[in-house]
Design a protein that fits this description.
By secondary structure, the protein is of the alpha+beta class. Helix content is about 40%, strand content about 25%. It has 2 domains: about 70 residues, CAC2371-like domains (S-adenosyl-L-methionine-dependent methyltransferases, Single Sheet), CATH 2.20.130; about 55 residues, no CATH class. It contains 4 helices and 4 strands, in the order ββββαααα.
Length: about 150
């Protein structure tokens, strides 16, 4: 059987995460070729997370890709980078700006507030005199006009 495997290991935020990538070429599942234009590979990612409290979490995720089997390292990198960006943004929006707690859904309000949160997140990220996280910077800006002016830039 023709396939490729790769492994990665990351440390951070009090946990260790190991990932095992298995990439199969389209020839093994050719019946799906007609349903997916440019389908080249199927990818399975087995992830194991070792948490600081001793718990172990496992997850298996599946992907399809238009990248050929010979680019399997690029495919693994692309999957990891996508989740780094996705998780980083959503984590900051949820934890720092309490996005998930917002109950506003009328008309375009949720979309408009989403854009506003991203602008606020950008402004808070760009402010470098305070090394605290987004949630603390947000609270500091709410309680200090001087700091708020520094964040907004005037």
């Amino acid at each position: 059987m023709v396939y490729r495997q790769d492994q990665t290991k990351d440390y951070g935020h009090g946990r260790i995460e190991e990932r095992e990538y298995t990439i199969l070429p389209m020839m093994y599942l050719s019946e799906y070729k007609r349903d997916w234009k440019d389908l080249q590979t199927f990818i399975r990612v087995n992830a194991t997370r070792y948490l600081a409290d001793g718990k172990i979490e496992t997850a298996t995720r599946y992907y399809i890709s238009s990248m050929p089997l010979k680019s399997f390292r690029k495919t693994c990198f692309a999957i990891r980078e996508h989740w780094l960006i996705e998780n980083g943004l959503h984590y900051k929006l949820d934890v720092g700006l309490c996005e998930d707690a917002c109950q506003i859904y009328r008309g375009h309000a949720a979309e408009n507030l989403g854009y506003m949160r991203k602008i606020v997140l950008k402004l808070l990220n760009d402010e470098t005199t305070c090394s605290n996280g987004i949630a603390i910077k947000r609270m500091k800006a709410a309680m200090s006009v001087r700091y708020l002016r520094k964040v907004v830039g005037f």
